[in-house]
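Ticket #4471: structure export looks truncated?
Reporter: QA, pipeline team
Priority: medium

Steps to reproduce: submit the single chain below to the structure queue and open the exported record.
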Amino acid sequence: MARFHIIIPAAGAGNRMATAIPKQYLPLCGKPVVSHSIQTFFACPRISSINLALSADDFFWRSLTLDSHSRLNLHYTGGDTRAQTVLNTLEAMRPNVAADDWILVHDAARPGLTVALLNQLLDALEHDDVGGLLALPLADTLKQSNADSRVEKTIPRDGLWQAQTPQMFRFDLLHQALAGFDGVPTDEAQAVEALGLQPKLVVGSMRNMKITYPQDLALMEVLMQKEISS
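Actual output as written to the record:
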């Protein structure tokens, strides 16, 4: 039976946050942003392994000694791009995974994932021929601007979705997609699409937002504190 493995690319610098430390290590409700996602994956017994992909000079995890039976694995496999980091990590994992095992790639700065939402994704895709991702149908009107930041045209939002993570594909398929992609894919799904396949969209949640700007972190803090106090 195919198992489920998590990859969390955590080698990025998060420059848009304009902070001295990478955004995945910023404090959120008393612990680093990335720790919230790790805790969610630990809380789901269906997950066989959690693989944290770090830069070679990562300062945060170097002093951590993991129990030999821990489901958390540290890989110093950070590349120049997210796609290269994931591909490097797949290579590091190869001895311990099967070709048809599921790989779920989750953003390090997306701490709002819940066990319920994770199980929803696993249930929706574990028998799928391709795999897929969490995503949200777009609700807002989209405008395309010109060089002067003036509206050039309105883009119909029918059929448009905002991609989230985890994105979930079989080991061999994801490795093939990333290794053979011409250029740098924006996410794993785009690499799979380039093979002529159609990943399935599974409805996500606003809570599963990505921390990109300082106001995102503040909003997530408010949401989590409200849940703790309720």
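Status: closed, not a bug. The export was complete when the record was re-opened. Leaving a note from the reviewer for reference: The chain has a mean pLDDT of 92.
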